[in-house]
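Weekly structure sync, notes
Attendees: PL (lead), two postdocs, one rotation student
Agenda item 3: pending single-chain targets
PL asked that the sequence for the first pending target be pasted directly into the notes so everyone works from the same version. It is reproduced below exactly as submitted, 313 residues in total.
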Amino acid sequence: MMRAPEDVVPHARIPADVDVPDKIAYGLTARQLAILAVAGVLGVVIVQIAGGLVPQPVLVAVLTPLAGVAIVLALGRRDGLPMDAWLLAALRHARASRRLAPAATGRAASVPAWAPQTAPPGRAVPVLRLPASAISDSGVIDTGPHAVALVACTTVNIGLRTGEEQAALIGGYGRWLNSIGGPVQIVVSAQRVDLAGHALRVADGAESIANPTLADAARDYAGFLDELAAHRDPLWRTVTVAVTADGDRARDAEVLRRAEHAAGALSALGAQTAVLDGGRAAAVLACATDPYAPADVTWARALPDTAVTGPGV
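Predicted structure, written out during the meeting:
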C-alpha cells in the first residue's frame, strides 16, 4: 500500500555536539590528555625517587589513588561539566563571600555601626556583580560587550500536522537559524504557576462585578484555584529567545531590529511572540534567578534605576 505524500514524516538531522571539543588522540580532548600527561609525569617522578626506597606494594598503594584521581578528573562529568571544571567552580563558590550587595559605583559602602557585622570589622560587603549592568525602557539589556533583547514565544505542536506542513515548519525554522548574524540563546524552562496569586486577583475582581451570578462564579473559580494550588504543583513551559548585538554605534537599535526579525520569523511558524520591554525583561530575569519559587512573569517589574512611588494621598 502506497503512502500519500502528505503522510511522509520529514526527518531533519540536527547536530547536538557543535560545542564538543575536538578529539586529539585516542578519543580524548586536549584537556583530558593534559591531565593524564601531568599525572603520568608525576607518577614517573615518584617511581624514580621512591622506587628503590620503599617496597613495591607501598609504591602501588601510592600510585593507585593518583591514577584514580587523574582518570576521574579527565573522564568524569557532573551537571554537564567536566569534573575538573566542576571542582574549580565548587572551590570558587566555597571561597566566595556569602553576602553581596549591589553598588552602582563599583564599590560597596562600609557596614553601618548599627547593622549586624556580615563582614570583617572595617571592611565593606563585597560587591554583587551581575552579567547585566542596565536595562533600558525599550528592553535592551546592557551586558558590557553585548546588547541583549529578549523575545518571549510559545511552542508549536507539529505532531498533528501533515508531512508537508511539518516540512514547511522545519524549513521555516531552518531559514531563521541560517539568517542569524550573531549569538542567539534559546532557553526552554518550566516554572511553577502562581495559582494562589491568580486566585487572589480573581477574588478581588469579583467584588467589582455588578451581576451577582457572575460574581459568585468568579468566587467559585477563585476557590477552585486555591484548592488546586493546595493539592497540585502545576508547571508551565516558557520559551525565551535572547538575541545579541555588539559594536559601538546604534547597538541598541540593531539588537531591537534583530529581536523584531526573530519574533516575525517565529510567528510565521504559528508561535505567539512578543519582544519584551524593560519591565517585562526585568520580570523574566527576576523569575529566572529563583525558578523554584512561584512567580508571575506576566506583570512587569520596575527597572533597577526607577523610583517606585505610591498613590497620592
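Discussion points:
- Residues 279 and 303 are 6 Å apart (CA to CA).
- The mean pLDDT is 81.
Action: rotation student to compare against the earlier draft before next sync.
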